[in-house]
């Protein structure tokens, strides 16, 4: 395979690189806004970056603690979709021993933390051009879904 860029691809890449920090700053601001709007919800967990780690803010990951909800992540995803909020369930293929990389290298290794994350993780939209109203729609929808499916004392 030839992995060299054509002149057109290189020009596109340079143009994107010039905008990279502006786009990342917009995503970071959106993340902070969503964090503030969702931080008090029971059962929701956001990854905490390690000190000195600079995030790309490519997406907004949130975990719905399975012990605090009456439904699984697939039903939570469907409810958010019904509210008009695009989302992606990460699922088992990305994390677990079912992935060929794990099967080839580790055989039948169990990864309980990864398995739990796979059952809980959902990605919410975090595009640089989202308007504040779009972010508010995400917050309202997540709050509605949490209110509908949180089980209180499971």
Q: What kind of oligomer do you see?
A: single chain
What's the story with the biggest beta sheet? 4 strands, antiparallel
Q: How big a fraction of the residues is strand? A: 5-15%
Poorly predicted tracts of residues: none
What structural class do helix, strand and pairing data support? Answer: alpha+beta
What portion of residues is helical?
40-55%
The tally of helices reads 6
Count of strand segments:
4
Which strands sit side by side, in order, in the main sheet? Answer: 1-2-4-3
The pLDDT mean sits at 87
Amino- and carboxy-terminal Cα gap:
53 Å
| SSE pattern | HEEHEHHHEH
Rg from Cα: 18 Å
C-alpha geometry: globular
Description:
This protein has 154 residues and is α+β, with helices and mostly antiparallel strands. 52% of the residues lie in helices and 8% in strands. The chain contains six helices and four strands, in the order H-E-E-H-E-H-H-H-E-H. Helix 1 crosses helix 6 (132-149).
Per-chain topology:
Blueprint lengths: L6 H32 L5 E2 L14 E5 L8 H10 L5 E2 L2 H4 L4 H7 L5 H9 E4 L7 H18 L5
Antiparallel strand pairs: 1-2, 2-4, 3-4
Helix pairs in contact: 1-6
Condensed summary:
By secondary structure, the chain is an alpha+beta fold. It is 52% helix and 8% strand.
Spell out the key features of this protein.
154 residues, alpha+beta, four-stranded antiparallel sheet, 6 helices, 4 strands, 52% helix, globular
């Amino acid at each position: 395979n030839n992995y060299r860029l054509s002149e057109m691809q290189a020009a596109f890449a340079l143009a994107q690189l010039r905008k990279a920090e502006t786009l990342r700053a917009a995503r970071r601001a959106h993340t902070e806004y969503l964090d503030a709007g969702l931080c008090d919800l029971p059962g929701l967990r956001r990854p905490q970056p390690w000190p000195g780690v600079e995030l790309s803010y490519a997406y907004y990951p949130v975990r719905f603690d399975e012990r605090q909800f009456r439904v699984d992540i697939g039903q939570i995803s469907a409810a958010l979709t019904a509210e008009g909020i695009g989302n992606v369930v990460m699922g088992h293929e990305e994390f677990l021993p079912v992935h060929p990389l794990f099967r080839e290298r580790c055989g039948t290794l169990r990864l309980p933390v990864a398995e739990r994350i796979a059952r809980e993780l959902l990605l919410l939209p975090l595009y640089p051009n989202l308007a504040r109203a779009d972010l508010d729609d995400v917050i309202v929808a997540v709050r509605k879904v949490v209110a509908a499916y949180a089980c209180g004392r499971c």
